[in-house]
Design goal:
The chain is of the alpha+beta class. The protein is built from 5 helices and 17 strands. Helix content is about 15%, strand content about 40%. The longest helix has 14 residues. The termini are far apart.
């Protein structure tokens, strides 16, 4: 399989990614993103998220093969200029469904945004946040006093969620992680694992005195009053990985890193 004429090439602004893009452009004929059947993304995990959000915004979703020219590169493959056609042909494909965040602010504005890794709610001031948390039609936590709380997908469970001591979710688990950030009360609540069909609602108690922001991956909404979070399987994204570095195995092995 040749990627010439059917794949687009996108690269982050960092010098290493730009140099790599120049090398690939000498070897392959790429097409504009709007005409592509697939995408080669050069950069780090942050740039991969930007690329996926760009496709969601344009409603132009196609498979993405990333190569790491950033820092961590958890969502990326190893950078190599040779053998790209063969790597694409042999790549394992994984479906990743984004979260859908619907945030309503104290000013009455409603903002909808996708999130591939997580939606997090964070206090804006030195005062702790006070949140009411619902799962489906049930209030499961009448008052969570904390720095914040997040909802993570399996693909995002090894990112901010893991730093907040949340659980690592296998890629095919069909679960979401609901994880507190520095919970003060209830002090012993460590979070929950919920079916990915669950509608999670978060209401900010006293949002004027204790303001809270909501962040969907890299997009922040300030001064929210309520946030609803659901999985959006109708907009699934496809990530491609070398068989020896597949995403499901990476996520599973993170449980054994100490």
């Amino acid at each position: 399989m040749s990627i010439d004429g059917i794949y687009a090439l996108v690269a982050s602004s960092v010098e290493a990614a730009q140099r790599a893009a120049e090398e690939l452009q000498k070897r392959h004929d790429f097409v504009p993103l709007e005409d592509a059947e697939g995408v080669i993304a050069l950069g780090g995990d942050g740039f991969m998220l930007q690329t996926l959000h760009r496709m969601l915004a344009k409603d132009r979703i196609c498979p993405v093969f990333g190569m790491n020219l950033g820092t961590v590169g958890f969502l990326m493959n190893e950078w190599r200029v040779e053998g790209l056609d063969e790597r694409i042909a042999e790549a394992k494909r994984f479906q990743v469904a984004p979260l859908k965040m619907i945030a309503k602010t104290v000013d009455g504005e409603t903002i909808t945004s996708p999130a591939i890794n997580e939606v997090s709610l964070l206090r804006e001031t030195r005062q702790t946040a006070k949140l009411e948390v619902s799962a489906g039609d049930h209030v499961v936590l009448p008052e969570l006093v904390c720095d914040g709380v997040l909802v993570a997908t399996p693909a995002g469970s090894t990112a901010y969620n893991l730093s907040a001591k949340g659980p690592i979710l296998p890629l095919g688990s069909k679960m979401l992680a609901l994880t507190p950030i520095s919970a003060f009360r209830p002090r012993r609540w460590d979070g929950a694992i919920l079916p990915d069909t669950t509608r999670i609602g978060i209401r900010v108690l006293n949002p004027v005195k204790r303001p809270v922001s909501a962040v969907a991956d890299q997009r922040e909404v300030r001064d929210v009053e309520t946030v609803e979070i659901t999985l959006d399987p109708t907009r699934s994204l496809t990530l491609m990985f070398d068989p020896e570095h597949a995403l499901d195995e990476r996520i599973a092995m993170e449980q054994f890193i100490v």
